[in-house]
Fold this sequence. Notes:
By secondary structure, this protein is mainly alpha-helical. It contains eight helices and three strands; from the N terminus they run ααααβααββαα. It has a domain at about 1-55. Strand 2 (about 105-110) and strand 3 form a beta hairpin.
Amino acid sequence: MGRARNFKLVQVLGDDAIGREGRANASDHLDVRLWLRLLSCSTQIEQVIRTQLRLQHGTTLSRFDYLAQLERHPDGLRMNALSRFLMVTGGNVTGLTDQLVAEGWVERVADLQDRRSQTVRLTPEGRVQFLRMAADHEAWLTQMFSGFDSQNKDLLYELLGHLRVHLARPAPEDTP
């Protein structure tokens, strides 16, 4: 563990590539440094995915996420459920839906349980397009994580799972 403590990320990445983590220094609390490292990793991965989606598929991460939700729900989703899954406003979902309907990738259908509502689902063409993007997306992630052996990936996944569970617990009333 001593070797890991002496690892100086800025020496490896340099000042230009260090990003948000460059705000931290050795005197900062470990929790601050850990948060900045997690944020930096997440941001860096997201930037690569955004760039690749734009360059290789002419689309955005928002559209990819939208299509991914519909792929997971083959019978479709109501707009309000789609909005909750994507954690965006109904207006954003409506705009994306309008674009994707115009391109023939999704369709609106009357909700059989509530005729006032509409369900949105992938069209066959939308499914084909999404599956192409999803295969590339997985390949990009595989490439980005290729420097980690499976044991380290498993450990990181497990530790982040513990963090998620901890964060999901209600905070004591005396903490903000």
